[in-house]
Specification:
By secondary structure, this protein is mainly α. The protein has 10 helices and 2 strands. The chain is about 45% helix and about 0% strand.
Length: about 250
């Protein structure tokens, strides 16, 4: 329901998009983007009757990030949003030396997370944005855990919101989304073939496991074995990791 994005300088939009700003305080703007990206904020929006999402809706969203969670939240939000050099200025102004000390919360996806979360430079490069489906999924899960901790929700409450209020996402996670050994989300046509042949079969041609990207035309080969990941387990684990890293809440 709530789909936020960090808009780079110089961009414009039509009235179907509602934007807000925090003049001269980019870190707070980035943190707000993270807070609004969480399942908790989406849940808070969808439970109250509304016809649009505007300032009245945004102003009542929970936003309790602390100095301890700010750096961790910013790094994940920036690596999700700073996808081109249009974001270079935002990245540089928000860069924090503490980024280098940050690391992924281990999860069911940890074997597919190729790079270190804190392996970043002060200047934006094309290595800054998280590009694989598994990396982007993990960053969103960790944002969910950080926001839940910041607003005083428990891990069980966060998982209950996910399980009961997001049935479409839950359905994709449990039945429809699989990843290959390179962390790519496997297209449905290849998944259908994989299921028909038998999930343990290794008898595939390159063409059968290849698919072209509809936008760029690039051809990707998906490598078996394909695996599904448990979002609820990963939310619980990330919550516990950050609770330990950040210490007891006041």
């Amino acid at each position: 329901t709530l789909i936020p994005a960090l808009i780079p300088p110089g961009a414009a939009h039509v009235d179907g998009i509602y934007s807000l700003g925090v003049p001269d305080d980019l870190p707070t703007l980035v943190a707000l983007t993270g807070s609004m990206s969480s399942l908790i904020s989406d849940f808070a929006v969808r439970v109250a009757p509304k016809s649009t999402i505007r300032s009245g809706t945004a102003s009542r969203l929970p936003c309790g990030f602390t100095s301890e969670t700010l750096s961790a939240l910013m790094l994940r939000v920036l690596r999700l949003n700073c996808v081109t050099n249009a974001y270079a200025e935002i990245w540089q102004k928000c860069f924090d030396d503490h980024f280098h000390l940050d690391a992924w919360a281990k999860s069911s996806a940890h074997g597919l997370l190729r790079g270190g979360l804190g392996d970043v430079t002060h200047s934006w490069t094309d290595a800054i944005p998280l590009r694989s489906a598994v990396e982007r999924r993990q960053a969103l899960i960790e944002i969910d855990a950080l926001v839940a901790l910041s607003v005083g929700a428990t891990a069980d409450e966060l998982c209950a919101i996910y399980r009961t209020q997001f049935p479409v996402l839950y359905g994709y996670d449990t039945r429809g989304t699989f990843y290959d050994v390179n962390g790519r989300s496997v297209p449905s046509a290849i998944l259908a073939l994989w299921r028909r042949r038998g999930m343990n079969s290794g008898n595939y041609t390159n063409e059968e496991l290849s698919s072209s990207h509809p936008g760029s035309g690039l051809v990707y080969r998906y490598e078996t074995p394909f695996i599904s990941l448990d979002r609820e387990q990963d939310l619980q684990f990330a919550f516990a990791v950050f609770a330990d890293r950040l210490g007891p809440r006041p």
